[in-house]
Design brief:
heterodimer, A: alpha/beta, Rossmann fold, 4-stranded parallel sheet, 4 strands, 15% strand, globular, B: mainly alpha, 10 helices
Chain lengths: 133, 204
């Protein structure tokens, strides 16, 4: 989103269900408006429930920020595919993308709220992960 | 071991057929302890691999394996994409164009390490590693084609009484006991298919 504050940490939402991913993104937007770069992806390449690496790479690109990108995932395959996508990024970007160990909806909202205040990638990740710890 | 173009294509088609023909069985296994999409996911992945023929078989063996791995990573859609895909990609990176047995032993060892890292898992957790690790041990110990294929089948069977610790089946806790791990079954089918082609090529 062009009006997003491009210097804040970007948020990517990855769910097996495109509806969940999109709905979680709606909730994030309601909280933080366009203060953070945001993208979502969900579904396998045929549109069924699942996740796919190409979609995740595209979402990371959309939500890219020099401060980095925090990825929120739902279940196992979303995490494995997200980690695979991170490894496929250009080397200078790889270290600036983290997959958070947090619930996808709550984690995305909390991470985005933290990011909207200008926090670092590490702080954004920590805030998402600590909420349910 | 040297595989000419025809043999490489035969290998790809045999690998793909082994999972595509068992897609329903794999899905049934996954419905019992997972999310029920494993057969469909693997079928989609290997159909995408087949779609890259004939060009795929023009590549050298290592390049062909890497390409298969990348297609699986991009197309499978579940965790098995990155897991099985990583195995093929790393195997391709580690193998020379005309591997001797020792090369295959070393390359499979490396590829299994990469799968462990990708899944943050070890053998004994009811995953594909429970087939890959014991089969690799038979290969490393000098086992012939028959011994490798037999171990692949038996190792998949041995996942039935295991408690799932990684993956979606781990949500079921003790209810995961008594069902074969679908990923282990897939890998065992792939190994069985590969062994059959390689054995035929070695004897012809």
């Amino acid at each position: 989103m062009s009006s997003a504050n491009a210097r804040n940490v970007g948020i990517v939402i990855v769910s097996h269900s495109p509806k969940i991913a999109e709905g979680a993104a709606d909730m994030v937007r309601q909280m933080v408006g366009s203060a953070v770069p945001l993208a979502w992806t969900g579904g396998d390449v045929d549109g069924g429930l699942g996740t796919n690496v190409a979609g995740i790479l595209e979402a990371i690109e959309t939500a890219w920020s020099p401060a980095g990108v925090a990825v929120l995932v739902d279940l196992g395959g979303a995490e494995t595919n997200s980690e695979m996508a991170v490894e496929m990024l250009a080397e200078d970007r790889r270290a600036r993308v983290v997959v958070c160990n947090a619930p996808v909806v709550e984690g995305a909202v909390i991470a985005a709220t933290e990011s909207s205040g200008g926090s670092s990638l590490a702080a954004v990740k920590r805030s998402a992960e600590e909420f349910y710890a | 071991m040297s595989l000419d173009r025809a043999a490489r294509e035969k290998l790809v088609r045999a690998l793909a057929a082994s999972v595509i023909e068992h897609a329903n069985e794999l899905t049934s296994l996954d419905q019992a302890i997972g999310d029920g999409d494993h057969g469909l996911n693997m079928k989609r992945g290997f159909e995408a691999v087949i779609a890259t023929l004939p060009g795929l078989a023009d590549k050298s063996l290592p390049e062909m394996l890497k390409a298969i791995g990348m297609t699986l990573v991009m197309k499978v859609g579940g965790a098995s994409g990155p897991l099985v895909g990583t195995f093929f990609m790393e195997l391709g990176k580690a193998l020379p164009e005309q591997p001797a047995r020792a090369d295959l032993v070393a390359a499979t060892d490396k590829a299994i390490d990469a799968v462990r890292a990708r899944g943050r898992s070890e053998a004994g957790q009811k995953t594909l590693l429970d087939v890959l690790v014991p089969v690799q041990a038979v290969l490393a110990g000098g086992g012939d084609a028959r011994a490798v294929a037999a171990e692949a089948a038996q190792a998949a069977d041995r996942t039935t009484p295991m408690l799932a610790i990684r993956g979606r089946a781990s949500f079921l806790g003790e209810r995961s006991i008594g069902h074969m791990d679908p990923g282990s079954r897939s890998v065992s089918l792939l190994i069985g298919a590969a062994v059959k082609v390689l054995e035929f090529e070695a004897s012809s």
